[in-house]
Design goal:
Strand order of the largest sheet: 6-3-7-2-8-1-10-9
Largest sheet: 8 strands, mixed
Mean pLDDT: 97
Number of domains: 1
Distance between the termini: 16 Å
Strand content: 25-35%
């Protein structure tokens, strides 16, 4: 019987990679990188063997999909922001067993899901950026789940999350961490003024709402948050319509969840978007 050992909502802003490079932005995202290091440290303490990432940079238009190839290796450049993430080398092991178990549980619950283990699919940067700071030694296997869901219902993503929990506890023998990799508000700065918003949120409405949400999370007011999630995701431009967050809360029990979020990296603005690293106690 497996165990859900750790759950978190994490940032994957590409400026983290830029923060490593010599130049005017060197060190600008050290707090976010340090947050990833801390989350990884706790995963090691909890003897986690696999990290499941709900990746809001993997876009799908039909169904739910899991990339559980046994191994990936390559050099990644973002087609979205090639001036931020370019020539990033990566190599990680996957977990086909867990990926297939999740797909089976989700499909049996009516959320049709395909697990891709014999595939040329690579990883997207919602997984690659955090794994760079958490998993350079390949200690953790990786399973990636598509979470930029373009024609999907949030309720189905909640049910998918519930299926992830069942697969972990009923069909797997090991310790798993689950990450929702995506922002809070996600309104990118308008082209032409991006440098002005490198460390800002695009609009006071978005930042005020985000900060209210962070307060709700730290107080454990999940019933109210789950109730507002569909409107929040739409009106605040939630990344991937926040399907990653719906999945994560499905894993944790949705509006019956009672944990109080621990903010590992405080809320910050990045290119107009609202970001943080937060552990949600299991």
């Amino acid at each position: 019987m497996g165990k859900l050992a750790l759950a978190a909502k994490i940032t994957h802003v590409p400026s983290m990679y830029l923060s490593e490079q010599d130049g005017p932005h060197k060190g600008c995202r050290q707090a976010a990188i340090d947050g990833h290091h801390e989350i990884a440290r706790r995963c090691r303490e909890l003897d986690v063997d696999t990290i499941v990432v709900f990746d809001t940079h993997w876009l799908v238009n039909s169904g739910y999909h899991i990339n559980c190839a046994p191994y990936w290796e390559g050099i990644y450049t973002s087609n979205e922001l090639p001036h931020f993430i370019k020539n990033l080398p990566y190599a990680y092991f996957g977990n086909p067993e867990l990926g297939k178990a999740i797909a089976a549980q989700a499909s049996s619950a009516g959320v049709h899901t395909r697990a891709h283990d014999d595939t040329s699919l690579g990883l997207e940067y919602g997984a690659l950026v955090p794994m760079r700071y958490m998993n350079q030694d390949k200690r953790f296997k990786v399973v990636s789940v598509s979470a930029m869901c373009m024609a999907h219902n949030l309720d189905d993503s909640v049910d998918f999350g519930r299926a992830v929990r069942r697969a972990i506890e009923e069909d797997y023998d090991g310790n798993i961490a689950v990450f929702a990799s995506g922002s809070l508000s996600h309104r990118f700065a308008q082209n032409g003024v991006t440098e002005q918003f490198m460390h800002k949120v695009w609009d006071p409405f978005l930042e005020t709402t985000d900060r209210h949400v962070v307060d709700m999370w730290t107080r454990g007011d999940w019933k109210a948050f789950c109730g507002m999630l569909p409107e929040y995701a739409t009106k605040c431009h939630g990344e991937g319509l926040m399907h990653d967050t719906a999945m994560l809360l499905g894993v944790l029990g949705w509006d019956a969840y009672e944990g109080k979020a621990e903010i590992v990296t405080p809320y910050f603005g990045s290119s107009g978007t609202g970001q943080l690293n937060a552990i949600l106690p299991v």
